[in-house]
Amino acid sequence: MKKIIESLFALGMLFATVGCDQDQIVAKFDTSGEDAGTAYFVKNAVSENFEASATGTQTINLDLFRQDAAGELTVGLTAEMDEAAAKFFRIPESVTFADGDYRVIVPVSVLDVEKFDKGVTYAVSISVNNAGTENESSASIGSKYASVTLSASLTLNWVPCYVLKDFSKLLSTDLTDADYVVGPDGKPMLQGGVYTYTFWWEGEDDTVMLERAEGTNVFRLTNWGGGVNILFTINADKTISLTSQYVGEDYSDGTKVLVSDLPSTGVGTDVCTWDGDRTFTFPLVYLLEDGRWFGETCVETFVLNDGSASLE
Known about the structure:
This protein is mostly beta strands. The protein is built from 3 helices and 23 strands.
């Protein structure tokens, strides 16, 4: 039975900073005061999922705008990314608006997409060198962004997990029907478990199911939290990586609530783990999309069903 109770923060939210920067500079502007020499993106984030069969170089086109179309304008671009992403992304150093054009395409080349690690998202932040200053709100135009974060990954093919006779084989890629616990209907039993919430929600949830991205060690818990899927990767040493993801609910001021492992955000060093059997332990931090958090971390668990209850 699902028994989830949203935690009440009677003392109010504690605001603190975590080890993640606000990647985007958000501004709104007045059409009458825009400098002809400035340019901007109209989105602060763009994502692209390539089919698992994709190969070679792919191109992602980003739109860059300016307010005043008079004259030719060359705009410099700066890209920031980690070493892994740098193997794949190629961004032009500049683009040029033709006289009379309000928009120019920024072509981003993504090399050798077949070499993407499955389940990994690669990202690059692209900034406009002459984005100008932030101006006041203009409802007629909306937001402009001095930078955009572009992320790319391979589409994952999700398959259900089944209850294993030997849970240590969870990461195996050569399982057969003989490895699974068979239900009363003579078919392998779908793998569910009991998730215990201790922070944003409290209580136990026995409706969560486990799925795996085919050919990877990327897993997800379905119907988690506010009805979303939470992805995580089980590493060879049985540690788990769980990067920031939306929990399916918003804070009282409308900001999205995220959840993440501790090392990814810099608020702690305790790592998530799988014990090689039925238990997953998740030291987590719940935080807001803008970087605020609640000043506390928590430990939550997921314990796999062994199928015995269904066989009774």
